[in-house]
Q: What sequence folds into this?
DNA sequence: TTAGTTCTAGTCAATTTGACTATAACTAAT
DNA sequence: ATTAGTTATAGTCAAATTGACTAGAACTAA
């Protein structure tokens, strides 16, 4: 499953979006579902996740991590299925390149209808984990591009945690993390004082055994 | 994989131990390995983990949680194997009931030799996760019995985190967590002032979707 | 009765956090 | 050109938390 930031239709502020694919066969024909597919004997788990992602949506995530293995007996009405779910974060520029079609669409993460299988529960769990990781580690930067302003980082936190944060205190907090590097560039073209651009110098992610954050 | 506290041979202080089983067939015949086995079509993932645990060691854990799904292509030299690993914590009284034999033995977690498959890496990851969970959540209590003293809790933390903690400050920290309940019992029979007994009132664990701690 | 040890409650300074104020730097309207 | 409006940024201050430490309470063993 994939998270990306997209501007909300109304406020224009960034919100979390998820691409889903429509089921074209039973069970749950016609309902929306998470992209996925079988694991071949010759590919690793993250490779299979990346391949499925590419084949269905054309996306190339900047962050990929194992979420959880779901193996309940009645996840599918027709057969026993064990799904090892990965979750990915994609940057806005990449997300814009995604193939959208009749059967592949983006949805706001907080406004999903009833999905196929247990996919609502899986997304709930992923959202919980995303919020948790945000509170501690430095995962938010994988939702942003290479350069960003501190206000943009704050908007990401506000979108995911769903509450407002004090700009001054948030700035102090971010500036205290060593992985954030100040550049001498400024974002021009805004309506007000141009903010300084920063960049994230942490590791790229894309690794299941990624042990830097709880 | 299972963690339990056992007194160290020398100091007698509690340390982390892990039960392993000896491989009786190829590959890795003769080496020690984590207990495990196949998943049947009619049991859930945690059920399968509990059954395997019971069959090989006779243990009934007080805490069970999914660790990670390992699916590298060359984990076994003979075939492609995907292992969905669970980890368990057992209380000392339960651990003492474990079946030990020629082919099932307890080992100190920090003194393991070379194990079969990628099991050393799996244990390293589990240890990392255990330390991480200890630092935040209230997982340590599943390694203890129903009643415990604050010094015992501290010893668990010291054993797992491998550093000494100030008794007074640790006490203040533990007493501030609402899940710890003070009883009006005292542990008698010690050599010094009898410490008060406490109990843990949090949820029992034993659930894969256990979302209370990061 | 005394020495030794742990249990327990507390102090105090250093650090972190949350709420807030003030100035800087830009755009858009007058 | 000036002013109003808005965001960016730096800083203050009190409250809360943390780490290092002191001291009395309560028991056992000599």
A:
């Amino acid at each position: 499953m994939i998270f990306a930031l997209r501007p909300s239709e109304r406020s224009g502020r960034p919100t979390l979006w998820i691409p889903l694919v429509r089921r074209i066969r039973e069970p749950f024909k016609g309902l929306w579902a998470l992209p996925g597919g079988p694991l071949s004997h010759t590919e690793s788990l993250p490779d299979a996740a990346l391949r499925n992602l590419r084949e269905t949506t054309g996306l190339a995530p900047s962050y990929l991590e194992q979420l959880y293995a779901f193996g309940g007996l009645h996840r599918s009405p027709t057969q026993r299925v064990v799904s090892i779910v990965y979750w990915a974060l994609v940057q806005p520029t990449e997300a814009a390149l995604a193939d959208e079609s009749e059967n592949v669409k983006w949805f706001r993460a907080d406004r999903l209808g009833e999905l196929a299988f247990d996919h609502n529960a899986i997304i709930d769990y992923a959202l919980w984990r995303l919020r948790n990781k945000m509170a501690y580690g430095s995962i938010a930067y994988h939702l942003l591009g290479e350069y960003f302003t501190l206000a943009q980082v704050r908007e990401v936190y506000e979108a995911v945690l769903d509450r407002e944060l004090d700009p001054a205190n948030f700035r102090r907090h971010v500036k205290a993390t060593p992985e954030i590097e100040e550049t001498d560039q400024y974002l021009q073209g805004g309506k007000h004082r141009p903010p300084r651009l920063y960049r994230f110098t942490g590791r790229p992610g894309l690794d299941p055994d990624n042990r830097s954050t709880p």
Summary: The domain at 2-145 of chain B is CATH 3.90.79.10 (Nucleoside Triphosphate Pyrophosphohydrolase).
